[in-house]
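Is 1,3-dihydroxyacetonephosphate placement plausible here? Inputs below.
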Amino acid sequence: MFETVEIDASLDLFVEIEKLKKEKNAVILAHYYQVGDIQDVADYIGDSLGLSQQAAKTEAEMIVFAGVHFMAETAKILNPHKKVVLPDLRAGCSLAEGCPPKEFAEFKASHPDHIVITYINCSAEIKALSDIICTSSNAVQIVNSLPKDQKIIFAPDKNLGAYVAKQTGRDLVLWNGACMVHEIFSQQRILKLKEQNPEAKIIAHPECEEPILALADFIGSTTALLNYSKKSEAQSFIVATETGILHQMQKDSPKKTFIPAPPTTNCACNDCPHMKLNTLEKLYLCLRDGQPEIIVPEDIRIGAEKSIRRMLDISVQLGL
Ligand code: 13P
Ligand code: SF4
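Reply from A.M.:
I modeled the complex. Tokens:
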């Protein structure tokens, strides 16, 4: 399944993908961290909330999910009778990997009177162990929607959890997980960049650590960051999130300047190695061949669907 497959070099993949989409009644849902070519062939590009809302309402027969495993899995959980494919099944997530079901079940059992709010960046098993799923665009509102005295476990991202705790003034019991990309930004190097670009606004994703968030003029999900960059009068931005989002920011505001926030070393660690496993070639192949396919055991799917639907329902009530 992972071996290199030869593709006829004379094929125009953009044209072929359009043809296959119609032939197979398929929809391509892509996250902003995908490579530019994939974003350009997608029917919908969005943040995790937008993508799950699209997955919940699509009438297509096949969903090609250009993102990571937990995202495609969420689409499958909401569409058990549809085919959901992911260009590269190895596209995981450090947050999902850092929260194994057995340990999480024990953690949950040690806090019996707590409700479990879990960030969507987790496996189906963890979703089935949770009460409500959230994303970075609705986590604060979901916590605020619960009674003030309700005890809450927030998992698996301790950075998003700390941000939500600060915004809501609530005490949250946090699972000790983090995103390998958002933990890598250097406060010192961002400050240096700001000195060189004093007019630039610093915008950051809430998966970043607190010292980075403390520098930010605006904090939000990928969609919120994109919208802020479009509406803001500022002409330049230092962007503390995965670099894929710059493609759409630059497309939407061609005259503005977007500078990726630098990581602590000279690596390309602000590129998510999981997101970047997907390529246009692999997307073409999975659309053509209908695999690799996402499969979720039915007992886990039923439990996971409950917590995802709760998030979707609350989001409708909150107008998100
Ligand atoms: P959002 O696009 O929902 O802000 O999530 C960011 C992310 O890290 C997805 O893996
Ligand atoms: Fe996971 Fe971070 Fe990659 Fe998003 S950017 S998929 S949270 S490792």
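Short version: Residues 30 and 66 are 4 Å apart (CA to CA).
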